[in-house]
Design goal:
CATH topology of chain A: Amidase signature (AS) enzymes
Order of helices and strands of chain A: HEHEHEHEHEEHHEHEHHHHEHHEEH
Largest interface: A-B, 72 and 52 residues
CATH class of one domain in chain B: Mainly Alpha
Distance between the termini of chain B: 37 Å
Strand order of the largest sheet of chain B: 1-2
Oligomer: heterotrimer
CATH topology of one domain in chain B: Histone, subunit A
Chains: A alpha/beta, B mainly alpha, C alpha+beta
Strand order of the largest sheet of chain A: 1-3-2-4-6-5-10-11-9-7-8
Helix content of chain A: 25-40%
Structural class of chain A: alpha/beta
CATH superfamily of chain A: Amidase signature (AS) domain
Strand content of chain B: 5-15%
Number of strands of chain A: 11
Chain lengths: 490, 95, 499
């Protein structure tokens, strides 16, 4: 990460980023709003600190882009929707505060599918963001704007949220790194909720090392979010629970602080080492074309580095998408009930009765995909359907989690595609919601199980489209996974 | 299963949407496709399986009973309301 | 009108007396506060806000569960209940449907009837709406106040029992210290389900009367519903399953919403709150904090205080606490005093214990003197010490005071000027100490008998007219300026007159 210094001022860095952002806007529609004045003011403050020899923070003067579903006192938080367009938040999200406490400077708010519902950023009230490699194609989504902001080198990093692939898919569509941590690693406080049991805050950046730095800054228990984990280093993982092989004894933590050490050598007696040795590959996905070639190439590469490739049978994963499109809409229908035109943001001005305030504000304020998901959610929760859909799906979720647990007894990490195909054309799937959902088939199971996963770039198609893969770890293996990726996946 | 227009209207009502006919019909078509897709779960045997509602293993996360100053006070919150009067949120008459 | 059997089940909402709300750290006591001044961004349901569970509310729920003789469920969870209303900011209420914290229990009514508790669960309260011409205003001060909802079994079969049950719940919750019990401010609210059936026949359709906030209105609403439903049944008409509202002014219930158009609440497990998993130790720790409950006092004072007096006093926990202190008697006599004897085998004072007459006397002062005072509510906040009361009762017992004198002294305990003084000091100041000394009294009696004005009376008495004795006692009292103890005067008079 390039931080500000006496040689390169924060103001210069911010100005450059703002200029790039402006220049890219017409072609790519990356941002919903820019944060020019506040960003320059912050930059000047950082430069003052540097000049005075004060600690300007680990992200001093680093311009970054904020997905527009994070609350911040700077600018409006629209969630790319009409209903929240006027929302000027009096609150700043915990994760944003932590970044800014380390000197990072938000230069703009990026585009997304409204309320993060989508896989292409086409469901934005402000129009779609275009792919950084081919502007006729989708950026991916829902965090499309953030992925493109990093891919176009406007900023060094951007925030995202990943409920079913919303970081990893656009990252792989644009050739950047995108990380979805273990559920609960970063506070969700101040992030517009989509599905509470799978929502994760994460990042886009240019390397696993940069993401590691961002994680070490933003992770940790937050009194404002009851579902946050104590730290990012994964106490359970370092104890070896997650890495215990089928036959091996307790692995040893070789770091002096007892933390997992990804670079630890093999044990001379052939006992299980503390570093990862086995990489799992799922047999059950039907993978073709460029994506298959990229996967095979990466497998070969890892083998040549001495890693063992383990084939995994995971027959329940094919139901994960159906489970996801039951559980997540149920939580969406609940979480989006609060947008009712009563207490804040948009209220339809022609509404005369209370029913009209509700009905018109909501019908008007949500995008069609928001409405589909809210209605599906209400369907699966409504009396008569709860057991057959919602409860059944939560049971299936248990089976999916168990399948991962079994898999991680056989391997340390799982290597998988993020999507079946590279970026598709704008408009190609907008009329067919199910075909759009099918894009998520390899990303959603990870969210249902709350696992960490890093999407990383693996080159391009012959047409110049980005290709990406993801590395999935056991719960709370985030640090080990990023360390491994930093060393072995470049 | 196929859901009827009547059921679409019921779901719209649960969702608090007032939909024009054309939109209701279009949504109905999409919903039927989606429901048909998610119904494939029928074939998975979940007999005797406990549901998972949260992938977070901590329990008893709670706080002390102490009053704290909030990041946004009454004025900051009410300033967001589309209409307010006498420090209250104003809405059309609730019948 | 035919005879019908009435069956009643009651759901009671109890606001917990925590300092802060169930899921946010703002003041939970919004009485006398400006609208929306006790509202956090969580209560306002801004985007991205998450609940933060108040541990004290969980503790209070456990205590309430004990007070209801209920099992505490070691594992409990929260669920979301969805409906739209301007006073419900999130569009759902966080409640407990599937795994509530309090399991089955019972409440014993004063007459010994048991009403079973189905379960009780924690949930958050909604805000308040006020209605004006053409618009309504929303105040969210109450939104997020912790509640427990206590759901009874349909074990109640009369309006009087319905009232007794609600009142007993009110006593139990305030004694247990989990609720302020201010009914006027909605600290407890009752939803009453009522159905009628011919004797021996299955239950009829029920109507639910929502949001009753006094024991009297519970009783009246049940009486009204009995009449309304029996009239319908007499005519072979159907009772509609519906929610009805009660008006204290008209004394009638009116239809609000029929259950056919009942809302579909789409309950869903709350994903933002991890489960509560209590240890047995935690539960026992809360149990140990439980103060004495009305039923404990009934057992303790049975036969010692008249039942009807006791039931009156049971409405006032501070008075029961004071009586308990007096009954225990410890620390009242100072270091030199004898140990009070615990005569029950369980260490409790028996009804016939040595302190029984003291307790009875003070109980009667509480019931007939203190509670008759206009300012009694105020007085309850600052009761005299057990020592003051004990001394006064003791002096009265020993006839050092007349009962009128004792009442006078008792009332001075509430006089700010005399608040902290000894009973004896006050009695002296009021000049109400009685003369019991036989020598002194004989002297006065002699004076009276030798008074020529009494000669006629003395003559009459000697001629057999007993009733003039009263007159003579009165004369002695007069001569003593009211300080003679009439009970002591009488035998002296008799003795002198019979000579």
């Amino acid at each position: 990460m390039q931080i500000a210094s006496k040689e390169l001022s924060a103001v210069e860095m911010v100005k450059t980023a703002l200029e790039k952002a402006k220049a890219a806007q017409e072609k790519y529609s990356v941002f919903i709003s820019l944060n020019k004045e506040a960003a320059l003011k912050r930059a000047a403050e950082i430069d003052g600190k540097i000049k005075n020899g004060e600690n300007p923070g680990r992200l001093a003067g680093v311009p970054y882009a904020l997905k527009d579903n994070f609350l911040s006192k700077d600018g409006n938080t629209t969630a790319a929707s009409k209903i929240l367009e006027p929302m000027k938040s009096p609150i700043t999200a915990t994760s944003v505060k932590k970044l800014e406490d380390e000197g990072a400077i938000m230069i703009g708010r990026t585009n997304l599918d409204a309320f993060a519902h989508g896989s292409s950023t086409e469901n934005s009230y402000f129009g779609p963001t275009k792919n950084s490699k081919d502007a006729a194609r989708v950026a991916g989504g829902s965090s499309g704007g953030s992925a493109v902001a990093v891919a176009l080198d406007i900023v060094q990093f951007a925030t995202g949220t990943d409920t079913g692939g919303s970081i990893r898919q656009p990252a792989s569509f644009n050739g950047v790194y995108g990380f979805k941590p273990t559920y609960g690693t970063i506070s969700r406080y101040g992030v517009v909720a989509m599905a509470s049991s799978t929502d994760c805050v994460g990042f886009f950046a240019n390397s696993a090392e940069d993401i590691d730095l961002l994680m070490s800054i933003t992770a940790g228990q937050d009194p404002y979010d009851m579902t946050t984990l104590p730290d990012y280093y994964g106490a359970d993982f370092t104890r070896g629970d997650a890495l215990r092989g089928p036959a091996g004894p307790e692995p040893q933590a070789s770091g002096s602080d007892g933390r997992y050490n990804a670079t630890a050598p093999w044990d001379a007696e052939g006992r299980r080492p503390t570093g990862p040795r086995k990489i799992g590959v799922i047999k059950d996905f039907d993978i073709k074309g460029d994506i298959k070639d990229a996967l095979d190439k990466k497998i070969k590469d890892l083998k040549s580095k001495g890693y063992e490739i383990v084939e995994l049978e995971m027959p329940t994963l094919k139901y994960a998408l159906a489970v996801y499109y039951i559980v997540v809409p149920a939580e969406i229908s609940s979480n989006l009930s609060r947008y009712d035109g009563i207490r804040y943001a948009y209220r339809n001005s022609s509404a005369k009765s209370l029913d009209e305030v509700y009905g018109k504000s909501r019908s008007d304020g949500f995008m069609p995909e928001n409405k589909r998901r809210i209605m599906i959610g209400n369907f699966v929760l409504s009396s008569g359907f709860y057991d057959a859909y919602y409860l059944k799906a939560q049971k299936a979720r248990t089976l999916i989690i168990k399948e991962y647990e079994e898999a991680f007894k056989k391997c340390d990490f799982i290597l998988s595609p993020v999507t079946p195909n590279p970026a598709f054309k704008l408009g190609e799937k907008t009329d067919d919601p199910v075909s759009m959902y099918l894009e998520d088939v390899m990303s959603v199971p990870i969210n249902l199980a709350g696992l960490p996963s890093l999407a990383f770039p693996v080159g391009e198609t012959k047409d110049g489209l980005s290709l990406g893969l993801q590395l999935i770890g056991p719960r709370r293996s985030d640090k080990a996974l990023l360390d491994f990726a930093g060393k072995e996946l470049k | 299963m196929e859901i009827t227009r009547e059921e679409i209207d019921h779901l719209a009502q649960l969702s608090n949407f007032s939909l024009e006919d054309a939109e209701a019909n279009a949504l109905g078509k999409d919903l039927n496709q989606i429901i048909s897709y998610i119904s494939q779960l029928d074939e998975l045997d979940t007999e005797g399986v406990e549901p998972t509602y949260q992938v977070f293993e901590m329990e008893n996360v709670w706080r002390d009973d102490e009053i704290k100053t909030q990041e946004a006070d009454r004025e900051a919150l009410l300033a967001l309301a589309p209409e307010q009067q006498e420090h209250q949120i104003k809405v059309p008459k609730v019948l | 009108m035919k005879d019908y059997e009435i069956t009643i089940g009651i759901e009671c909402h109890v606001q917990l007396a925590t300092r802060t709300k169930l899921f946010s750290e703002v003041d939970n006591d919004a009485r006398e506060k400006e609208p929306n001044s006790c509202v956090s961004p969580v209560d306002y349901a801004l985007p991205g806000m998450l609940p933060r569970l108040n541990k004290e509310a969980v503790k209070m729920a456990v205590i309430a569960g004990h007070a209801l003789n209920s099992e505490i469920n070691l594992i409990s969870r929260f669920d979301r209940k969805h409906y739209y209303y301007p006073d419900l900011p999130k569009g759902y209420q966080i409640s407990q449907l599937y795994q509530p914290i309090i399991g089955a229990g019972y409440v014993k009514l004063p007459d010994g009837t048991k009403v079973r508790i189905e379960h009780a669960h924690m949930e958050e309260d909604a805000g308040k709406l006020s209605h004006f011409a053409g618009y309504s205003l929303v105040d969210l001060n109450r939104a997020g106040t912790p509640l427990i909802e206590i759901v009874s079994m349909p074990d109640i079969h009369s309006a009087a029992h319905a009232r007794d049950y609600c009142k007993e719940l009110w006593r139990i919750m305030t004694y247990a210290g989990v609720c302020f019990g201010d009914l006027y401010n909605g600290n407890m609210r009752f939803d009453v389900n009522i159905s009628l059936a011919k004797p021996g026949e299955p239950l009829g359709t029920r109507a639910e009367i929502k949001n009753l906030n006094s024991f009297r209105s519970v009783e009246r609403a049940v009486e009204y519903e009995y009449k309304r439903q029996s009239k319908l049944l007499d005519k072979d008409e159907k009772v509609v399953q519906e929610t009805r509202g009660w008006s204290d002014d008209t004394g009638e219930t009116t239809s609000q919403r029929s259950k056919e158009e009942a809302q579909d609440y789409r309950y869903m497990p709350e994903p933002d709150i991890p489960p509560i998993h209590l240890t047995k130790e935690f539960v026992e720790e809360q149990k140990a904090k439980m103060p004495k409950l009305p039923e404990d006092y009934r057992e303790q004072f049975k036969g010692q205080i008249a039942d009807d007096t006791l039931e009156i006093l049971l409405d006032y926990q501070p008075l029961m606490g004071k009586l308990d202190e007096l009954a225990r008697g410890d620390a009242l006599r100072g270091p030199a005093g004898p140990e009070p004897q615990a005569s029950g085998s369980d260490g409790r004072d028996s009804a016939a214990g040595p302190r029984a007459s003291i307790v009875k006397r003070v109980a009667n002062w509480f019931a007939s003197v203190l509670l008759a005072e206009e300012k009694s509510a105020e007085y309850l906040n600052d009761l005299p010490s057990a020592k003051q009361l004990d001394d006064l009762a003791e002096m009265t017992e020993k006839s050092e005071l007349s009962s009128t004198g004792a009442k006078e002294v008792f009332l001075k305990f509430f006089d700010p000027q005399m608040r902290n003084r000894d009973a004896r000091e006050i009695a002296k100041e009021l000049n109400v100490l009685q003369e019991n000394d036989a020598g002194a009294l004989e002297k006065i009696v002699d004076e009276v008998l030798s008074d020529p004005a009494c000669a006629k009376a003395v003559e009459d008495y000697k001629a057999g007219s007993e009733k003039v004795l009263g007159f003579l006692v009165g004369q002695v009292m007069k001569a003593s300026k009211g300080k003679a103890n009439p009970a002591a005067v009488q035998p002296i008079l008799k003795k002198k007159l019979s000579k």
